[in-house]
Design goal:
five-stranded antiparallel beta sheet; 195 residues; alpha+beta; four-stranded mixed beta sheet; binds fe (ii) ion
Length: 195
Amino acid sequence: METVIRADGTGYSPAMRALIDQVRAAVRSDGGPGAIARGVAGVLRPFLDRHDLLLPVQRQADSTKYRQHVIHVEPDGIFSVVSLVWLPGQSTPIHDHVSWCVVGVHQGREHEIRYRLVEDGVAAHLEESGDGFNRAGSTAALTPPGDIHRVMNPGPEAAISLHIYGADIAALGSSIRRCYYLPIRDRAPTEHGGA
Ligand SMILES: [Fe+2]
């Protein structure tokens, strides 16, 4: 397979075309969103250290905010592949997703903070439910609901990750279902004082 580069610089490396072929098979296998996402994560993992995976345009950053490059949308919209590029210090808002989502870190590292939405019938707030530093080569599979998180690049180098979503990201513009601009509170202690 040869590299395909369109006039605007977008296109596919041979490695990306091989990845897309394997994702297509995984997405069309039997199983619910969780099983599909786990299968796609397994497909993505061996490609993450391929330095020929992304075209130069798909690695470009934006000095003002993290940047999304849509690499592929399946013709029937059943899945999309994008690269996200963060410069040190850049962050997403706190958000969740429109569909299952698989993330694989290609370069650098990303700090993910996960949250739980707490609603008491009158008001709502967020509680932090965990966090982790995801290094190059690591994958994670997210399945809504309960996938509220924020991702940032703690530095020192640019971070690039591949994201595969079970939706048409070109039509939607983003994988984000909703952003959460809510107070963040410590988790309330239980009656017995347990964690
Ligand atoms: Fe996300």
